[in-house]
Amino acid sequence: MTLLRLPAAQPDGCQLTVAWRSALCATAVLCLTLLVGCASGLLPKPPTQPTLLLLDGGPAGTSPAVPIRPGAKTLIVETPRAAAAYDTRDLAYTRRGQQIAYYAYHQWADKPTQMLAPLIVRAAQGSGAFQAVVPAPTLATGAFRLETELLRLQQDFTHTPSRVQLSVRAVLIDTATRQVLGVRLFDIAVDTPSEDAVGGASAANQAVAQWLPALATFMAQAIPP
Prior knowledge:
By secondary structure, the chain is of the alpha/beta class. It has helices at 12-42, 112-126, 197-222, and strands at 51-53, 73-77, 81-82, 90-94, 101-108, 130-135, 144-156, 163-174, 180-191. The protein contains three helices and nine strands, in the order αβββββαββββα.
């Protein structure tokens, strides 16, 4: 005869122990979840991405093209240079004297000199003084070369309302003789529509829109007949 062994019945205390274990596990999971949540709250937040602003002269920066004069020659436009304080994507401003600061949450989409370069080419093309306008670097040769330097582009809060100051020096050179045909310092100031970075960028675009036609006129007048 085969005898079957039945499991002994568990006392009530054992069932209670199992219930306590389940409760403790649930509590541990809850505490771990809370700890992870608190730890994530203590982690440093990713830096705020700056707002990018364009320097393109806006619609006013486009002037009607002038017919090309007879005998016009090729112009090479060098990439503009910039003073150290403005050779950056940061928007510069000043509140006193010679001190320059930069906005923390707004930047130019590119360095101002890089955004001005195609605008200068467009202005030269529309002047009618040149048969062709070629941006440097290039293997092409031209009868004339234009060099520009950004001396100042900043929002000045020492005035009310604040204003943007744009200063650019332009030099037109005869490539063959290396003779300087003309030098002009452009200083333009435009009041801002608002006392912030966006207002400064808006005024900067207005200043560029005023400067481009003046630059085209300077080049056309500097070319010998």
